[in-house]
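Need Band 7 domain-containing protein's 3D structure for a figure. Predict it.
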Amino acid sequence: REVDPSPNVKAAMEEQTSAERERRAAILKADGEKRSAILSAEGSKQSRILTAEGDKQSRILAAEGVRQAKVLEAQGQRSQTILEKQGEAQGLRITAMGASALDSKALTVLSLESLKEIGAGASTKFVLPLELTKLFEGAADYVGYSRKAPDRQLSEVKDIENALGKSEDILGTIPTAAEMQAELDAIKEEADEALQEIKADGIKDQMSATQPPKELIEPKE
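Structure prediction for Band 7 domain-containing protein:
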């Protein structure tokens, strides 16, 4: 036989059932909002960590690039200075060796040629680092219309080396293209090794290394 409760009992039971449903819905809603807030905060935290790591890596790589650029620039300036100074020394030595082989007659001819070039210019005033009478006396000696002056004694190679030094001592060791390229390759290799070390110590996966918050662990019933 079925028991039919009174209307008051039915109303009370329905009210209790509705309240229980509302309570459960409120609990589920609050729990969802809590989980969403926790996940949002955790995501913001991981985003800040990764952003900071990225900025750090960027600064390190930029500083390393500047350092390598300065090293290469200094190396290039050093090689350029060495080659320029060696070229100047070689030019001076060649000039000295060439002048040592000139006798008085050759020097007189060169002086007259220089005077001719000066006179061919458009200027009307000239500044000469010598007396014209000395130059004309040398020319007269050369053509045989004046007293005979003793010719200039030619220098021996050993005398030149005693006065100027050996060519190896003056010029030094000039680096070849292969040696300079090898040095640049060594610098590039050091830069690559430094870059690999930076990458090895770089950004790790913080997301995989982070344990889930305790609040997200399902409670045991």
